Amino acid sequence: MKRFTARIGVALATTLALTTLAACGGNGGGSSSQSASDTVTIALDADAAPTGYDPLLYSQGQYTFFGALYDALFVLDTEGKAQPELVEKFSNSPDNLKTTLTLRDGVTFTDGKKLDSTVVKANLDRRSDKDLVAYGSLAPGGASEITDVAAPDPKTVVITWKAPQATPENNLADTAGAIIGPDGIANPDSLLTKPDGSGAYTLNTGKTTKASVYTLDKQSDDRNAERWAYDHIVVKVILDAQSLANAVISGQTDVAGILKPSVVELVQSRAGTVKVGGTIVGFPVWDKQGKTNPAFAKPEVRLALLRGIDDATIVKTLHQGSKGTKQLFPSDATGFDPSLNQTYSYDPAAAKQLLAKAGYPNGFSFEITIAGQPTEDLIAVQKQWSAIGVTMKVKTATSTDQVFAATNTEPLGFGPFAVGSNPAGFVAGVVYGGFMNQQKAKDPKIDAALGKSLGTTGADQEAALKDLNAALTNGGWYIPIYEDFTYTGYNKTKVAAPSYAGTNNYLVLSSLKPAS
Questions:
Q1: Which end of the chain is more exposed for a tag (fewer CB within 10 A), N or C?
Q2: Rounded to 10 degrees, what is the CA torsion of 465, 471, 472, 474?
Q3: What pTM does this model have?
Q4: How many domains does the chain contain in total?
């Protein structure tokens, strides 16, 4: 059976329409009746499991859904810090090249089998599978590459890293650390229709229709049962922005996200909202070597495009409440440097000078492929770049495959990217070691700063993150427009305010509690 894959995960969730599978039927799951008091209903603006129930096919943000079905080695709490879950304790070797995990006792998977070190090893040994988005930075060639996983006894796992990892728990949190049961690992195709996890909930297949509604029933005897407030979680898929807003306003759903900017004010006037920053909207530079367009081999060209964007005007006219920015790191992230916004501030004359220095005094043209029709942001930037002599020709994709292919055939992409509270992890897994760098371009300054960011802690790590942000910005690896906020609506009479995973733009589902 062919497995469908979400190759780029939630980083482009609002840009691409992911392929979904046909509805699954059958009986099973919990048989208990549901009442309003023991059930929380969550509406999402995209399918929670478009490619089935293998959590490793998805990026970190999908753990809002999968965290109820699967435990992970570590999970992010509401402060964005990685906490042990399937791990009882862990330690690093003095050189930070080996991490030893001691596993918890008494963990049982949906297939009835127990957690031990061989199960964890079997999971992590799938890291060379390029379809597994969650393992992007752990895979061969990744910035947090694992070279070996050993299981010396049933409770102990020893992970060997290619380069020092001072905070290994961050590499193994949420989807990247999700552990699938032995049966699911032995037959990954079985995960197309049923999960095999050790989470507090099981999928009620009799009350689930793929791409429409998912019903999860709590196992009362689960070791983490008390951590979850509700016996049942119902997840609805509502793609239309207005319908999603109406659902939370009317009480049809208790939580709704992600809210589109056009409906945030309405939901705020009739219900509650929570928000988090950390989403950077802009242009990932697919081509840093000039393979698709020779102009993009020049850092001066990429920086000219950065200086040619009037981010302040775009924010003022189109995105009030957002923040214009000239760097990939969010404003609340360690490593953010306000001076970079000054260094690369909007200056058409300076942009033209950079183009001339690169050998393009008369500008140049290029093509960009997007999903759907051009947004107001894209049209605004198109006009601003035209003023410095650069013509951006926008093509609308006829399929998601065409958008994926553009990462290899065109110089730029466009969309919102959830960098979150662990920018080094995002750089390692997406920008430098993932789909944003299909050409495997290298930059010694990025290599050095990323290695130090992953291999140190404290003040040394903070300095390294600042260097990493500067290297990415000075090299023109990403051309941002603004930092946006993610909004989630909630029914204030039914639930307390939900909590995000720190500055990451996804919720910690276990934090949902009834309104007091």
A1: C
A2: 140
A3: 0.79
A4: 2
